[in-house]
Write a structure and sequence with these properties.
With 104 residues, the protein is an all-beta fold. The chain is 0% helix and 15% strand. The structure holds iron/sulfur cluster (2 copies).
Length: 104
């Protein structure tokens, strides 16, 4: 059996950021720019595959059910979520302190 991870259905992601503080591994981050073909005005959140350990803590946090579990193959050298081996360019999120998102 393979390792669990999460993926985000971009079309269902409104960019509300509610899921971000639910990830203890900082694997959920906003995309740096909004793709031009996107119907939502706000950029989506993406899964940084190299950070995701598949704990599924975030899975119930999305109001639009954009987060879903995927299974990785038992033996894999690279996540299929990585595009051409590169991580997507994401924004930095201030998680702690008075102006941070706080913890779930
Ligand atoms: S909670 Fe859902 S809709 Fe909101 S940013 Fe996360 S994945 Fe997108
Ligand atoms: S499955 Fe766990 S590590 Fe992966 S994005 Fe969700 S909360 Fe973070």
């Amino acid at each position: 059996m393979g390792q669990s991870m999460v993926a985000i259905t971009e079309a269902h992601c409104t960019g509300c950021d509610l899921c971000i503080p639910h990830c203890p591994f900082e694997a959920l981050l906003p995309l740096a720019t909004n793709p031009p073909e996107r119907k939502h005005k706000k950029r989506p959140v993406v899964v940084v595959a190299s950070q995701c350990v598949g704990c599924l803590s975030c899975i119930g946090s999305c109001p639009t059910k954009a987060l879903h579990e995927i299974l990785m193959p038992p033996i894999s050298t690279q996540s299929p979520l990585l595009l051409n081996g590169k991580e997507p360019e994401t924004e930095t999120v201030l998680r702690w302190g008075k102006k941070g998102l706080g913890w779930a």
